[in-house]
Amino acid sequence: MVRLDWAALLLTATAVARAVTANTPSIVPGAYIVEYEEDQDSAEFVSSLDGEASLRRDLRFKLFKGASIQFENVKKAEEVAAKVAEMPQVKRVFPVRRYPVPHHTVHSTGDNVEAMLSKRQDSGNDTFTPHLMTQVNKFRDAGITGKGIKIAVIDTGIDYLHPALGGCFGSGCLVSYGTDLVGDDFNGSNKPTPDADPIDNCNGHGTHVAGIIAAQSNNPYGIIGAAQGVTLGAYRVFGCEGDVGNDILIAAYNMAYEAGSDIITASIGGPSGWSEDPWAAVVSRIVENGVPCVVSAGNDGATGIFYASTAANGKKVTAIASVDNIITPALLSNGSFSVDGNSSAAFGYTTGEPGEWNNVSLPLWAVDFNTTDPADGCDPYPASTPDLSGNIVLIRRGTCTFVQKVTNALAKGAKYVIFYNNVPGTATVTARVDGIEGVAMVTAEQGETWIRALEAGSKVVVSLGSPTSSSKFLANFNNTATPGFLSDYTSWGPTFEVEVKPQFSSPGGMILSTYPRLLGSYGVLSGTSMACPLAAAVYALLINVRGTKDPKTLENLLSATARPNLFRRNGASLPFLAPVPQQGAGLIQAWDAAHATTLLSESSLSFNDTDHFNPVQRFDISNTGTKAVTYSLSHVGAATAYTFANESTITPITFPGELTADFATLSFEPSGEFTLQPGQRKIVKVTAAPPKGLNAKRLPVYSGYVAINGSDGSALSLPYLGVAGSMHSATVLDRRGTLLSRSRDSMNTPVPANVTFVLPPAGHANDTSYRNRTELPKLVATLAMGSRLVRVDVVPVSNCTRAAKKATVVFGTKTLGQPEGMPSLYNARGTFEYDWDGQLDDGTYAPAGLYKLAVKALRIFGDETQGSEYDAAETVPFRIRYLEAPAKVKRQDEKC
Ligand SMILES: *[C@@H]1O[C@H](CO)[C@@H](O)[C@H](O)[C@H]1NC(C)=O
Ligand SMILES: *[C@@H]1O[C@H](CO)[C@@H](O)[C@H](O)[C@H]1NC(C)=O
Ligand SMILES: *[C@@H]1O[C@H](CO)[C@@H](O)[C@H](O)[C@H]1NC(C)=O
Ligand SMILES: *[C@@H]1O[C@H](CO)[C@@H](O)[C@H](O)[C@H]1NC(C)=O
Ligand SMILES: *[C@@H]1O[C@H](CO)[C@@H](O)[C@H](O)[C@H]1NC(C)=O
Ligand SMILES: *[C@@H]1O[C@H](CO)[C@@H](O)[C@H](O)[C@H]1NC(C)=O
Ligand SMILES: *[C@@H]1O[C@H](CO)[C@@H](O)[C@H](O)[C@H]1NC(C)=O
Ligand SMILES: *[C@@H]1O[C@H](CO)[C@@H](O)[C@H](O)[C@H]1NC(C)=O
Ligand SMILES: *[C@@H]1O[C@H](CO)[C@@H](O)[C@H](O)[C@H]1NC(C)=O
């Protein structure tokens, strides 16, 4: 039997040398995924490692044969891992990385009461707005519900006991299969405790996702799953909190595949931009074997272009972007108010944090009566302000933080604050400030009603019950600011190798769905996490209608029929289409996809960058209908997005970036109209010329659509993109953001030259008894753009120490080797941090002495065997010595 030593996985708060990543997925120390050349007994494999490693997880599946292993001695892990990679039965070895539940927004949740779960009449047609936006309603109205299709949901589990999610688990139930790979207490760094029960009682993300796909109509709010006839598989990969390792994700995907899932959906990811990332590669393999896989594109839109998320960025993996719902639903608590002592009226609110509204009934007070002031309550209140301890202060949302606004109110004695919104609906406000007992939010309309009454000199007394006793109701507001437009948070592609990402979009902003019974039963959430499951359901509907589940055919259909939208900012549309790197093909139009008789052979085209410009591309148009169709081709440009703000910046501009109305020129062959008889197919040649007059140094990304209009009324479009500059010329390493700091300095302040770090004795970096007396050098490296390979060299500064004499020269840099755990592969852009305990990649420790760390980041499309292909930076020199060097590690004299 193989001993499972999960304790070794504990990432305690001690100074274990590890790559701590600020915004790139972090690595689990000493943990590796090994892929075998062929089927191999994992227990036997691990025992061949002579007790160096234990088995984290057996990963022997039809499409992936391997294991994840944990080195007992994290210190020697890299050394042994290198040996493992050379073993004949091993195909490749890569580190285990961790991914979080995406940062979705929970806007409001329902009541924690069973009474809410009343049956609603399930008659009439589907008017659920995400369905109206995507034509999904037409399927249910026509009796097509995804019957017979199995969709696996890889997420936080599903609260299958929720009546709207079937109320049971197993054969015959809506949630008919799946498992819990991790258990409640798993947080990504401790030992998983798998069991057979994938219930989601504590997180909610997966329950919301499941309802979007398949919620039944027995709910009080009119929520309708997009494919009510499917069965779901629940693969739980998150505990109540924390992350998941990609070894568990790889296992979950393979289990879902082997359970016969027809579609696999996952609203999980982390910044990457590399389709070769191991998790993405596994998902690609499953798609190649005939199972469509949809993955949320990510919620990092704020970070700007070139920020694709894995596994969505995998080849053949369908990445789903998010648009905002046309309505803003909100689950509001019931409050009451009276004006000048008249009879009370009801209003709705969302309780915030703190939420100590225990039957508070107080008169409102407002700092001013201007309901359009964007910065209401941001300045300290005037000296003439009365004592507000007996009032609820009413403040408009906007400009400064909620905390600043409540702090100003608190300064005049206030304990309770109600915000009124500056956008439709309400939101959950968090403003924990000592002395403040309750915050809440009401709609803009409610706020204005009260302000007008106050302005007229009326007394408005507002009563809020205790959060547990006041019942909630659903209020739908029209979304006038962003209806059907791309959500600001949706992550932008393309990948660093100019692959088109995302594929298409679906409603993900402001979505009402099921939520665990223990967390309120229903909730309104936003994120690409909410967009992705609707796309998964659409695949099920398409499989019902078209009878094929070929991933490529279905993706091509959805892409060709999707509807591109304009770019929208601050409630106003710009006069051009949003770039393909933001919206892909556009918003899914499921009915059109299900019934299209003209098929395209591709879902998108990439013209690559100027170094690899591939201006001539071909795709097929097939007429599978019963009548001859005459087609004409044309071109519609989308906004060109500059990557850099000017020639001297190296980090991409953050959202919304700089968009211009410069379009490529496309020519087609055949150039005129052509007719295809039923069953005929034609190859179309597209030749692109990038837009003229762009500044190539700023790496403009141009994009648009080939429009294919048929005489039968069909109107298809094929998205394309290209980079009018050289990806290879982009600086990947931000030298100014690459520096040396101290492991305990969370601000990453650079240290001056020649600082001495006293390290724990070699091999004792995790020993707390040394903590007070030691501190590790922390390398902070910032990647302006992604880099497939980042190496770090330990450079002895003196030329005459024994260490220096052992040093070799790599790419012109004198080096003792790389710190343990380096190099780092497939890096997203962003900052990563690495605490070095003195260990090298060969398992030995660098002797005491003066060193620099030299960072080399491979440029995009660079040749890793050439030193000139790397961007380089060095830290200042620093000295290390070990606290109490154990006998084995002899102290080295650093002097000549
Ligand atoms: C931490 O150190 C102790 C002894 O110093 C060792 O037994 C243990 O394996 C170490 N754990 C890790 C994760 O290195
Ligand atoms: C419901 O949808 C069906 C199919 O689209 C349509 O025939 C019918 O008129 C619709 N009913 C109502 C009440 O809108
Ligand atoms: C995970 O949980 C363990 C206890 O089970 C705890 O020691 C550790 O700090 C947690 N890790 C994180 C990242 O929260
Ligand atoms: C309200 O505030 C806005 C922004 O400061 C200002 O433009 C507007 O004139 C104000 N309205 C009134 C009635 O004072
Ligand atoms: C919301 O929009 C719908 C459809 O445009 C319209 O009929 C309705 O009156 C609007 N409601 C409000 C409160 O503006
Ligand atoms: C762009 O060209 C490079 C070099 O040939 C290639 O590796 C990459 O895959 C190309 N990208 C696309 C999307 O074809
Ligand atoms: C750091 O120490 C080295 C070697 O002792 C010396 O040559 C160098 O001038 C020092 N640098 C600074 C900035 O003090
Ligand atoms: C570390 O220092 C703190 C405060 O200086 C002290 O309270 C603690 O006991 C010390 N711990 C050890 C292990 O020496
Ligand atoms: C060490 O030798 C290299 C050349 O091998 C030289 O460039 C460097 O200046 C020398 N450093 C010192 C401190 O002498």
TrEMBL record:
Source organism: Canariomyces notabilis
Domain (Peptidase S8/S53) ranges: 146-565
Chain ranges of the PA domain: 363-431
GO cellular component: membrane
Signal peptide: 1-19
Keywords from the named record: Cell wall, Hydrolase, Protease, Secreted, Serine protease, Signal
Active site, renumbered: D155, H205, S529
PROSITE patterns: SUBTILASE, SUBTILASE_ASP, SUBTILASE_HIS, SUBTILASE_SER
Protein name per the record: Subtilisin-like protein
InterPro entries: C5a/SBT2-like_Fn3, PA_dom_sf, PA_domain, Peptidase_S8/S53_dom, Peptidase_S8/S53_dom_sf, Peptidase_S8_Asp-AS, Peptidase_S8_His-AS, Peptidase_S8_Ser-AS
Molecular-function GO term, any one: serine-type endopeptidase activity
BP-aspect Gene Ontology terms: proteolysis
Domain C5a peptidase/Subtilisin-like protease SBT2-like Fn3-like: 606-721
Species lineage: Eukaryota, Fungi, Dikarya, Ascomycota, Pezizomycotina
Xref: PANTHER family: PEPTIDASE S8, SERIN ENDOPEPTIDASE
Family according to the record: Belongs to the peptidase S8 family.
